[in-house]
Structures are given as structure tokens and as C-alpha cells.
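quick one
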Amino acid sequence: MSIRLHNVEVNAPDNKNKKLLKQMDITLEKGSITLLVGHTGSGKSTLLQVLAGIVEPDSGAIYLDEQPMWHKGKVAPSLLLRLGLTFQFPEQQLFARSVEQEFLYSLRPYRLSAEERERRIRAACAEFDPDGVFAMERSPFSLSGGQQRRLALATTFAAAPDWLLMDEPTAGMEAAAVGDLLRLIRRSERPMGGYVIATHDLDTFLPLADRVIVLAGGAVAADGTPEAVCRRPELLQAAGVGLPSCAEAAQALERIGGIVIPPDTLTPERAAAAIAEALRARTSAGAAAQPASMAALAGAGSPTWAAAACGSAALAAPAAAAPAASPGAANAQPHAAAPLSPPFEANAAIIADMPSATPDVFRAAPCAEASPSSPGPSNVQPSAADSSVLPRAASPLSSAGPSGAMPSTDTSPKSLGAASVQAEEDALPPRAAWHRVDPRAKWMLYVLLVIAAMLQHHWTGLAAAAVPVLLGFIGLPRMVIRGGVKVARSFVIFMIVSVALAGLQISFEPSPFTLGFDTQRAAETVLNVSRLLLVVVAGYWFAVTTPYGQMVQGLGWVLKYLKKVKIPVDSFALAVSLIFRFLPLILREWQRFSTIVRARGKASLRPGAVRMRDIPALVVPLLLSLFYKAEEMTMAMELKRMGGQPLTAQKHMLNWAKRDTVTVLAGVVCFILLAIWSGR
Ligand SMILES: Nc1ncnc2c1ncn2[C@@H]1O[C@H](COP(=O)(O)OP(=O)(O)OP(=O)(O)O)[C@@H](O)[C@H]1O
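structure w/ adenosine-5'-triphosphate:
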């Protein structure tokens, strides 16, 4: 079973001109372990969410076993059941009242027998909870961060999906837990799918992987075996990834000790073997510079594994340097004499084709090193030794067809640098014009429009009052407008219930009782509640166009005149601004829960939707988030006051401009017109 992405592109939800993923053409073959690496913000999590059927591509298509994943904005549950995603932060995916409920929520879509469920929970706990902290009745929120990460992994592993997609699985985990996870991945057979792991932890995962996809600015910058990618350290560095420790140590060894070993010895054991072999070759060639090299190596604080590997061979080496006389010693030439030993030149040439080549190129690379025609010794990059050191599944790349081809992106370090600068520019949030307006002007506009709306007693007046409010949303990101529609939709349900109750007439005479509906009273209620709806929409506009700090300052400024007459306005300002701040928070929490329901509950829903039956479960995490946020805000407020400057006095941060005067004047004109209208 394969996952295939064909020309997949994903736009930022709030800015369709910003591409989070560009032209992704990737095939992940079954049995494979693929790493997604890249600078922070390069698109790893987004790609994982696309693979998991959580984010729908804006263009292109994704196939699971050649079946299109998305159909009319949804993914079929049968496909979702084959995909398991662990999120970057465990708190993004845990929500239940107890550890047991977490497991049951993940396993429910699989409709297992009670015994099988029990067996899987026990097996997962045995793997991920060696200390026995997962008491079934315990709240997941009482676990430490690392324990939460283990629980998140345990619930996903218990579901045993074909494809395990893990976002930074080792973040916040101690070494022992990382070791447990690696053992589990190595041990598990995965005939139907594979692993895709987004990570910055190259040391841990490179030795395990079959394939590494390097992302930069939302595009594939390099794609190949771990060894092939390590042989192009400049690509990794240009993509902002950094090098695994072994590759760094190999560079240091060459720089300081003049000892060349391949940069793709991915484990300490392989690196040590390569160093020992290089030293043996040098000794046998009569080279004499080793003691000096070793002293330099030790003085430079090189990794202890390198020093240990050099150990006795170094002491036995002759004192005088000698040119590499035999072909077997070619790899031991000092860097100054030969910047790249012959095998490295060969590799560089092969991998220089990487961007436009198929993954076959990367498979070919290790073989090229061992080619009999190669002037270098086979011990430089022991491809045969690779498999003996780290047994792994047959490389999925060996069967990669044209669909696995990499996009013909220019991945020279220079262009990657340019791509990351471009990506940073793209990442700047779109500045809606309203964000630049002084919050005091927005407060005044808001108050004027709300009072004008409340003055209206007829539908025409209310419709006229709605016009300036709705005009305020022009130019705001689509995501914000969608959020507003959601708020309004919930309010409309409240309206329908209110109107139905207001119009309902129950009379008990004559007996038993008669049921009627007073349309006039219902119509009055519709008008009243619609006025309220307009106030809510205006409040939402104000909240989404005003950063929190500005809102508090603006409100403080409005209220400071009351303060002069000894009215305590600080707490009022805080309370009002918190209410505004919580609206977007609730929307965000809703989005998070929708993601959990689709990823863990395997619900075939459109992004942003939540099943009715999951709503009770949403209440607890929502309240918790609100409490956390409130606590954070309280602390921030306290800190701000520590300088002895109350919030309401921060007027100097605000800057009144001509556009603010125009905004207030426009509000005054609207207010006067609407007030006249309401009096007709
Ligand atoms: N909902 C969103 N709206 C706008 N931009 C977004 C959204 N989600 C992600 N992005 C942007 O998309 C880019 C890729 O984000 P993503 O989380 O995929 O990166 P990443 O490689 O996983 O980063 P990290 O290593 O820090 O987790 C970032 O620039 C991020 O700011």
C-alpha cells in the first residue's frame, strides 16, 4: 500500500497567496520509514497533516493505495482507519477525562471486541509505560509533558494503523523513552504501510530511516537515502537542518586530524569502524602524523566515541607524515592536499543531479562507492557493512516508480537560501487595514455603531445599521470571516429557540389546553434578537481586528476619564478585554477539537466540523484552555504592572493618525444618519 501525492499544494488558511506546501510529488512505498526534516516552519507538520487526511490540498491530489483520499471535502472513514497521526504537542491530541478514556476514544472506530481492546491497551502500556504511571482512571492532564507524549504515542500505536505519521515524536522525551520508541519501530512489522516521522532529531532517526525528505519553504529540497543526504551537508545546512553529530564529527576529524572518513557513517559504531579502518590504512602506508592528529583531536573536544575509536591505533602510528602511497590509503589524505578524496568526488557528482533525478539515483550512490573502478578503498563507505550494522526493511525506494520522482526544483544552497528568505517574507501575517487603525478610534466606531443599531425599531433601520458593520469585514482573511459565520450560525440557533418560545401561546382554558403562536410577538423578538446579533458581529469584528494589548490600552484610554472621578475602571477594562479575547480562543479550541475528532475519532467530517456526540467531551478541554489562558493573562497583567505603571496609563504606545480621525468621523456620520432614520 502506498501513499502518493500528486502536485499537492496547500495555501495558508488566512492568505491564499502564501503557499505552505508547493508542488509536492512524492510516493511513500509500503514498508518504508521516511523522515521529514527541515527548518522550523518548512512545512513538515503541514505535510504530515495532508498525509493523515486532516488537511485537504488546495490543488493536486493525494492517493492511498491509488484511491483518491478526498471526496467532496471529506475522507472516507475506511481510509482514515489506516492512518494514525501523533501531533507535535501531546496536548494537541489528549482531551479525555482519564487515561482509559483516551485509549477507548482511539480504539472505538476500529470496533474491536472487548478482549482485543483490553489486549491492545495492555500491550501499549507495556511498551510505553515502563514506570506504571498510566493508571487507567488518572487524568491525562495530571501527567508530565514527557508522560503525555508517551500516552499519545501509546494510544496511536494501540490502534495499529497501517501508516504511523509522527510529528516530533521524541520532543520532550528522556533518552530511555526514545530508546523504547526506536526499539518498537525497528521491531514492528508493517506489511501494509510504514512510518513517516517529522523530526529535528537527526541523530536518533537517520540510522533508522530508509528515506529522508528535506523540506525548505514548503517544497522538497532534497530526497534520498540518509547516507546520500549526509553526503551533501551543504544542502542540509542551506535548508537550515544542521548535520547529525556523526557527520559533524567526520568534518572535525578531517579538519583537525586530517583523517577523512565518509560523512554518512550514521551511527557511532559505524563512524568508529571507519576511523579505525582509516587509521589502519594510514599506519600500513607508513604515515607518521597520527600522534599529533590524535592530540589535536582530543584537544578540540571531539566526541568521545571518535577519540576512543582512534585509541590504540593512534598510539601505534609512526611519528612522521608520509604521502598516501597505496591506493588503499587514498582516504587518509589530508584535506589540504586533496579537498575531496576520489570516492567523495564521485558521490558529489552523482548527488549533484539529485534535484532532477529519481530516487534511483540515491540507491545508486552507495554502489558507486564500492565500484571496482573506483580508485578509493571499499571501506570508505561500506554499503555492505551498512546493512549488517543496522538491519532494516528492504528499501521502499527500490521499487519507486516515476511517481516517486522529485520535483525539478533548484536546490543549490544559494537558491535554498533565497527560498528560505522568501518563505520568511511569505510568513509575515497579512496586515488588514483595520490593524493599523488606532484602537481608540475603533472603540469609538464600535460604540457609535452599536448604539445606532440599538436605536432601530424597524427592519429597514436595522438593515441600514448592518451595512457599515458588514463593510468592516471587507479585506479580512477568509478564515476570520468563516469564524464570524460560525459565531453567527450558533447565534441563529439561539434566535430560533428564543423566537419559538416568545411566540408560543399555551392556554389552559378551555380544558385541557390549546396551543397557539403569536406571530406579532415572535416578530418583535426576531427584531430584538437581530439587534443583539448585530452587536455580537460588531464585537467579533473588533476582537479580530485589534491585537489584545492594543484593545486593553484603547479601552483604558476610553475609561480613563471615568477614573478621574474615582471610578475603578481597571478591572472593568480587564474584564471586557478578556471577554473579547476569549472569542477567538473558543474558535481556536473548536478547530483543535475538530482535528482530534477527524484524526483520532476517524470521523468523515469537513475541516472545522465536530460531531454532535463529541460536543460533551469538548466542554472539559475548552474550559481547561480558558482557565490556562486566563491564568497566563493574569500573570502577564501582573508583570506589566510590576513597573508601577497601570494598564490604563499606556497611552504613549498609541499613535493617533489622520486615518483614525477619518474613521471616527465616518462613525459619527453613520451614527447621525441612523439616529435620524430611527426617529422617522
Ligand atoms: N493555520 C495557519 N495559518 C497560517 N499559516 C500557517 C498555519 N499553519 C501553519 N502555517 C505556516 O505554515 C508554515 C509551515 O508550518 P508547519 O507547522 O508545517 O512547519 P514545520 O516545518 O512543522 O515547523 P516546526 O518544525 O516548527 O514544527 C509556517 O510558516 C507556519 O507559520
